[in-house]
Amino acid sequence: MPRRKALRKNYSKKAIRRRSATKRKRLGRGLWFTRRAKIHPVLSVSSPIVSPRLTETTPPDFQPTIDPYENSLSNMPTHIGIIKQSARELEKIYDDYPKLFNKIRDGYMKYATEDSYLSLYNDSYTREYENTIKSLIESLPDKQQYSEEEKDDVGTILSNIYSLSRKFLENITLDKLESSKSFDEAEENIFKRFTDILENIIEHSNTRLLF
């Protein structure tokens, strides 16, 4: 009898250990699948990702409208101021360097014969700038705002200044090239400064850029 009880007790222990091992194995499988699920999540097919898009109710980005005509008109006083300042610099160079312009006049007088009306003028500066362009520049209004009529008048004046100044630049450059006189480096630099100022007047009177 005592031996049968011991055997039953030992058997009982083995059965307990066997059942415990089975539980640990099942528990381990459950943990492994749980960890794998966290590392490799699976997206549900029934809930697709929808990318955001504009709808009919989405307001467009606001962009302010710029009127280039109004903007050019607001800059017109600045252009006129530059033209008038350039004219003063141009006239000062002519007055300060008579020797240079006497040399240039030599080229002009080659085709200003006694029988030609060109002989009535001393040079291209007097004929084209002094008697025409200068008076047009002086007639430009010094104001910040213009009426509709004034806008048209200023545009016409600027257009005339532009075309006449281009002609004057071409002619006085030709006069210098045709002159039989020689020009030293200082005179070349002064003339370059003169033509640069004249080109500045041309640029700021170009109505195609202003309107």
Descriptive report:
The chain is 71% helix and 0% strand. It has helices at residues 2-39, 68-96, 98-109, 124-138, 148-178, 185-204, 207-210. The protein has seven helices and no strands. It is mainly alpha-helical. The longest helix is centred in the first third of the chain and has 38 residues, at 2-39. The chain has two domains: 1-35; 68-210, no CATH class. Helix 5 packs antiparallel against helix 6.
Attribute tags:
211 residues, mainly alpha, 71% helix, elongated
How are the elements arranged and paired?
Elements: H1 2-39, H2 68-96, H3 98-109, H4 124-138, H5 148-178, H6 185-204, H7 207-210
Helix pairs in contact: 2-6, 3-5, 4-5, 5-6
Helical element count? 7
Unreliable stretches, pLDDT < 50, 5 or more residues? 5-10, 25-47, 51-56, 62-73
Q: Fraction of residues in helices?
A: over 70%
Query: What is the end-to-end distance?
Result: 125 Å
Summarize the structure.
The chain has about 210 residues and is mostly helical. The protein is about 70% helix and about 0% strand.
